[in-house]
Amino acid sequence: MSTVSNVLNNPDRVATETRRRVEDAMDRVGYVRNGAARQLRGAPSRVVGCVLLDTANPYYAALARGVEDRLAEAGCVLVQCSTDVRADREAQWLRLLQEQNVRGVLVSPVSARVDHLTALRAHGTPVVLLDRAGANAELCAAVVDNVAGGELAARHLLDLGHRRLAYARAATPVPSVTARAEGIGRALRAARLDPAEALVEVRVTGASTDEVAREVVAGLLGHRPRPTGVVCFNDATALALLRGLRQRGIAVPGEISVVGYDDLDFAAELSPSLTTVRQPTYQLGHAAADLLLSEYHPHHRHQRLVFAPELMVRDSTGAPAG
């Protein structure tokens, strides 16, 4: 009976072959667990919430897959929610998930402040931060070092000889995007350049690829001297920029070099192929789910897992002309 209980409640503790035999036997007799009754007995829910900025974004899709695969190993199910980078939507989803007494929530916060998430955990709902380092020891966090990522991108352009850069960034103050800006500034200062003079920030507000292309290209061409190297806050923006520059007859990397961020599947297939900063997205999601599951271990201690980004050098970057 204890083996059956472990298969139902702690499947990752049971040998694969044993678990398969027990599950086959349950299938034969048509057994279906009563989740509501299980929670009445004090057992944790098998439903986990994941509140992300945009579940349609390929980056978050890959991250969520890592979460889902780890939860599946533990017999849990994932519910995904998009905030659209809106604090009110984030609050709405968190409230609804708390009402459903979920096992816990993984959150990519809209803002740098996490007081409301600390309070949520204090009320009994475990929380793990994604894309937010967590300034205190009260919450677990899994994050890529975005400061280092921004620094990698900018240093690559500086090493090629560029001395005036641009950062195409989201208009909303998402912590990960702000951290990349910090890294770019750090690289400029290390090269003895003043970010106030050597860096142009272009805010991205458009919803469609065409809108983003128009506003980023206009932002670049509107400055004199014109930046010769651009770091984009994600690969989707870099894709839009490449399209916009091609439409204007501006050569990449001959006249402007472009660096993306994320290393999504399409990055290597573009023409020119995209130099970008790779994030271990799937591993990040898998590790975050593992942190959440560990919240129920008797000797749980909060952890902050920081993953290192990697620069993928391809054809969209080169030495500045002249």
From TrEMBL:
Asked if the Swiss-Prot or TrEMBL record annotates the protein with the keyword Membrane, the reply is no
Show where the HTH lacI-type domain sits.
1-42
| A GO molecular-function annotation | DNA-binding transcription factor activity
Q: Which InterPro entries match?
A: HTH_LacI, LacI/GalR-like_sensor, Lambda_DNA-bd_dom_sf, Peripla_BP_I
Question: What CDD domains does this protein's entry cite?
Answer: HTH_LacI
Q: Does the keyword Transcription regulation apply?
A: yes
Which key words are in the record? DNA-binding, Transcription, Transcription regulation
Q: Which PANTHER family match?
A: HTH-TYPE TRANSCRIPTIONAL REGULATOR GALS, LACI-RELATED TRANSCRIPTIONAL REPRESSOR
Q: What is this protein called?
A: Substrate-binding domain-containing protein
